[in-house]
Each structure stands twice: as C-alpha cells, then as structure tokens.
Design goal:
TIM Barrel; about 20% strand; about 30% helix; 2 domains; alpha/beta; binds S-adenosyl-L-homocysteine; single chain; 14 strands
Amino acid sequence: MSTPKIVLTELTRVQLAESLAELGIDSRAIKAVWNGVYVRGLTDFSQMDTLARKTQAKLAEHFTLARPTISRELISTDGTRKWLLEWTDGQRVESVFIPETDRGALCISSQIGCTLSCSFCHTGTMRLARNLTAAEIVAQVLNARDRLQEWGRKRTECLCTNLVLMGMGEPLFNYDHVARALRIIMDGDGIGISRRRIMLSTAGVVPMIERVGRELGVNLAISLHAVRDDLRNELVPLNKKYPISELLRACREYPAASNARRITFEYVMLKDLNDSDADARELVRLLQGIHAKVNLIPWNPWPGAAYQTSTPERIQAFARNIGEGGFSSAVRATRGEDIMAACGQLKSEAENLPPSLLQLQR
Ligand code: SAH
C-alpha cells in the first residue's frame, strides 16, 4: 500500500524544510513551493515552473495541495460573503469575509461546532464535531484569496487584509493547530498577514492567554459580555471555571498589549440583562489598569433564541458611559445578517434552513 500523502499546508516552513530533507528533495525547492502555494495560489506542482520536472514529480508523489470543496457561497446585500467549506470527511465549517472600502476582514473558524454552549450563541447549540487541523484553518484563507481573485496581486491591492478568529469554535481549545496555522499565515514570504492584523477572540481560556501573547503576539479579544460572575456563568458557562477576576488578571498581564495595541473586550448587548448604566460603570471599573477598548455587539437573533437586542438608544447610552470612564468603544456594525453570517449566527446546518427562515433574520 502506498503511504498517504502529506498535506503540505499542514507544515510550517521549518517543518517543510525538514520534510523535504527526509524525502531527499532538493532544499532549494522550498522557496518555489512556498511562493507557489502562498503567493500564487497554485494547487498543482507542475505549475511551479521554476522547479525541475523531476522535482515537481517527486513533490506530487509525496504531498497533496488539495483544497476543501466549497459547498456553498452566499453573498449578502452588503457584500459580506459566507462560504461553507467541506472537508474530505464530510464535515463542514463556515468562514465569512467582511469587506470595507479598502480593506476587509476574514472571519475564520477554529473548530467544527463548539463546546462552550454560550446561551446566546447559535454555534453554541451545535455539538463539537472535531478540531480543525492547521491545514483546514489555512485553507480558509486560501479559499478567500481564490474567491476574491487576489492571487499574485500586490498586498496593497488585496481586500482580504485582516484576519479575525471569531468564527465557529474556541481557538484556545485547539491551540496547537491554531498556532501552527497562524505561523504559516503570518510568514512574510507567503500569505504575510502580520500579527498586528490578526485578532484572536476567546471566551476566556485563562491558562492559554499568556502563551498567545508570547508565542504569537496577535491582538487579543475577550468575549466578556457580563460584569458579574452570576450572569456571566449563565451566558458564558466557561466562566464557572475561569471567573471574571482571573480572566482580567490574565489580560492585565497579556504580553502583546500596549497603549497602541489594546485588548478588545467584546460585549454583546442583551436587552434588560447586561445593558444598564450601572453595568457600563462597573465595566469601566473592571477594566482599570488594562490596555482596553470595548466593542459593543448588538445581539444577533437566530431562530429559537430567548434573547432580545438592546435598543439603539440604550447601546448609545452604554457607549457614552464607557467613554466618560476613559475607554474608547465602538458599536460593531452588523454585517451579513441576511445570510446568517453575523456574529454568533454561524452554524453549518444553517445552509439547510429554508429561504423563508433566512429572510426572517433581516
Ligand atoms: N469562542 C470564541 C470565538 C467566537 S467569536 C469567543 O467566544 O470569543 C464570536 C463572537 O461573537 C464572540 O464574542 C461571541 O460571544 C459573539 N456572539 C456569539 N453569538 C452572538 C450573537 N447571537 N450575537 C452577537 N454576538 C454573538
């Protein structure tokens, strides 16, 4: 039986070098391969024309560059795109591209499903199917470059400039694969999205936070959502394990934060639950001593959920309180709602919803 092929995009550049050496492939091939895969978007070694035929054939014998199937692409009226990617085992995951005029953020998933069971999140109603591999995380970026036709373009001409790990799953429950994928994505000779343009969002896996700052140095976002442990236990059950005070201590010590690179505190606005002026003032008190900014997220509805979104006036008043307390805040614009691509709406079964239900989400 022939040995299964190595998934090339599973390897960092250092690992690829080792792998080529083991297989007796000329180490000079690395540059051409890395450039071919991550700058030109090639999926076939025979297109890597600076390589000798013999080397191309040997690479093809040992490695695969296969991409996931795109089982669905939805484009919102606001330009947001949602892709449903399918892996060889039939599991599917979503990623979302949110364009701005001269840049854009790709929101990628780290797991298929999620174990956190946050009560207000649609993905939380899915069970965890499995972790994504590094290659599957990288593939979400390659797919965006494919669909946006960005291969070979200058970086300044690409719309997919930023990356947020805010899709399905908890990235810090899949740290090894996420870290490897980010190393590949950040490599300056390849995709080259810098750590300053990457944001990793976590519900608060406290013991992992320091490592993220030290090893990856990306921007951190924390899904806080409540200022009291009793309410946060309900909304984000992980809080029972890592309560607010411990979470904030880890943020205070986050190695990659500074005045210029603040930690984003995400706060979902839930009517009459966490949106009072007193809550806002308590949030300001909690954030003292942290390089912090606040991102208020109007709660996005999904079928069967028992919450309501705060009114725009309440959100403005909450934001005002935060500003008066000395922190900047932004209200996250809801994007891609008509295709169920907004925060907390990702769930791969969503593709099975009848169009009438999708319409309800407007
Ligand atoms: N597990 C990570 C990554 C998910 S990020 C984390 O918890 O941070 C997705 C963000 O959207 C989180 O802040 C999440 O709490 C928020 N979110 C989930 N459901 C939402 C909804 N229905 N409306 C608005 N935001 C939601």
